[in-house]
């Protein structure tokens, strides 16, 4: 089992999809709270959780993983800022079209 521990300090406040892409077992937590996990994936899979980050705030990141014997790629952190629902629907929907 490999364990990564790091400090994460976001530059922008907002809601994010945050997780890991990996092949095998993995668990991701922030400040001791579980964000996402996977057990014995079938090939590389991305598992995400929703988190709210405050700009400049320190978050304790912990990633635990064990690769499958046939893993084709190393694990990697993935994240993206969430788009507010009102923006995601597009202009036509806000105007009732």
Word description of this protein:
By secondary structure, this protein is mainly β. Helices cover 8% and strands 55% of the residues. The chain has two helices and seven strands, in the order E-E-E-E-E-E-E-H-H. The protein has helices spanning 85-88, 91-94, and strands at 2-8, 14-22, 24-30, 33-38, 45-53, 59-67, 76-81. A four-stranded antiparallel sheet has the order 1-6-3-4, with no helix packed on it. The chain has a three-stranded antiparallel sheet with strand order 5-2-7, with no helix packed on it. A hairpin with a 2-residue loop joins strand 3 (24-30) and strand 4. The longest helix is centred in the C-terminal third of the chain and has 4 residues, at 85-88. The model is unreliable at 91-97 (pLDDT under 50).
